[in-house]
Design goal:
The chain is built from nine helices and no strands. The N and C termini lie close together (about 10 Å). Helix 1 crosses helix 2, helix 2 crosses helix 5 and helix 5 packs across helix 9. The mean pLDDT is about 90. It has about 160 residues and is mostly helical. It has one domain.
């Protein structure tokens, strides 16, 4: 992972887990966070495939969670500084990957990453699925996933050029 994308990945994963929390205790929360982080990591690598892309988002900033908060109905969620590092496109693409395991597998393959790196996303066990029940629910994710799904599908088009 490019270190420059770490704040975007962390903030976007945090936004996902706060918007779609795990039912249950600490273990469920940790499993949900792991899935959200893996989805956000894969989405960020697709969105910003080069070191130059990562550097540019580091300079310009990713845009924040304001629109996502409106779409999900959370409104003004408290103005926490980390929310400025949420990337709307990364969150939307991560939502697509969480809701559609087949699409997540295509994305990992497109980037040439082994499935073991994203095991909780690509091959979740029963505990992962219980913990991520809200995080992976296609109907709940639909408003966020639909924001930038066409761009994700275009990026994953086998005829599209991806820079590793």
């Amino acid at each position: 992972m490019q270190a420059d994308l770490s704040p975007v990945i962390a903030a976007t994963a945090q936004w996902l887990t706060r918007s779609y929390p795990a039912p249950g205790g600490a273990l469920a929360t940790a499993l949900c966070e792991a899935q959200a982080r893996q989805a956000a990591t894969l989405a960020a690598r697709l969105r910003y495939p080069t070191a130059m892309d990562a550097a540019l988002v580091g300079l310009a900033g990713p845009g924040g969670s304001a629109r996502l908060d409106r779409v999900t109905g959370t409104g003004d969620a408290g103005r926490q500084p980390w929310r400025t590092w949420v990337d709307e496109v990364v969150a939307s693409w991560a939502a697509c990957l969480l809701a559609e395991p087949g699409l997540a597998s295509v994305a990992a393959t497109a980037l040439g990453h082994p499935s073991t790196e994203f095991r909780r996303l690509l091959d979740p066990d029963e505990g992962d699925l219980r913990a991520g029940a809200l995080l992976r629910h296609p109907d709940l994710l639909s408003p966020v996933a639909s924001l930038h799904r066409p761009a994700l599908l275009a990026r994953l088009d086998p005829d599209a050029t991806l820079v590793p």
